[in-house]
Design a protein that fits this description.
By secondary structure, the protein is an alpha/beta fold. It has 5 helices and 10 strands, in the order E-E-E-H-E-H-E-H-E-E-E-E-H-E-H.
Length: about 220
């Protein structure tokens, strides 16, 4: 079994992990207010390959976080992953960003709700069981005091939206794990390996990130 390189750039966290048989053996990441993914990503990849004492030719696959998340961040990560797959002639694996975020939570009961900030009171969210089975598909939704009213379970919220959401989600069953803010390539390792074993890969030529909602480009105002 070779190695899988995992790339996570869907949020402010620029994160790369090298895994063998589903276990992270080297990783580098940094979360900054200003996105530095374009400058950092390839440096991180080169560094962990060097630290592992291998070459890119030892890789069996590349895994990339598919979104939802930052348009720019996703484009950078997917472009890098595609370029490596083309050059090395190895498969590309796409991993759900919100599942990566949820995978940092350890609970025995209740539900995990990972959320990625989509500006104002809107978030990208999904719902997972304690064993990370998806209970509700990914949505772009506006959080209000009535959000998740239909759920009686204890709800564990994680992600970079917890600070704003805890102001309106004040019910007793809402717990905010504020130390878990961003998805990390470290948690991609087991997920990408599981997909690799069953040949769950995507077409390198046609794969596109899961933006969830259109990226809007506005024309500059006239002076």
């Amino acid at each position: 079994m070779g190695y899988i390189l995992n790339i996570e750039t869907a949020t402010k966290n620029c994160s790369v992990a090298l895994a063998k048989e589903g276990k992270t053996i080297f990783y580098k990441e940094i979360a900054e207010e200003g996105y530095s993914h374009a400058e950092r990503l390839h440096v991180f990849i080169e560094q962990i390959i060097k630290d592992a004492g291998i070459t890119l030719n030892d890789l069996s696959a590349i895994a990339v976080s598919q979104g939802p998340g930052s348009y720019t961040g996703l484009r950078i990560g997917v472009s890098a992953a595609k370029g490596l797959c083309y050059a090395l002639d190895i498969p590309l694996i796409a991993v759900d960003t919100l599942q990566v975020l949820a995978s940092q939570v350890t609970i025995s009961d209740g539900l995990i709700i990972p959320m990625i900030d989509a500006r104002r009171m809107e978030v990208y969210s999904a719902i997972f069981s304690p064993n990370f089975e998806k209970k509700r598909e990914v949505l772009a939704e506006i959080i209000t005091e009535n959000s998740f009213d239909d759920l009686e379970d204890t709800l564990y919220f994680v992600g970079d939206s917890t600070e704003k959401c805890k102001l309106v989600l004040t019910k007793g069953n809402c717990i905010f794990l504020e130390d878990i803010k961003y998805p990390s390539a470290q948690e991609m390792s087991a997920l990408s390996y599981a997909k690799f074993k069953i040949n769950d890969t995507v077409d390198v030529a046609y794969f596109e990130p899961y933006y969830l909602k259109d990226f809007l480009v506005t024309a500059p105002k006239k002076q």
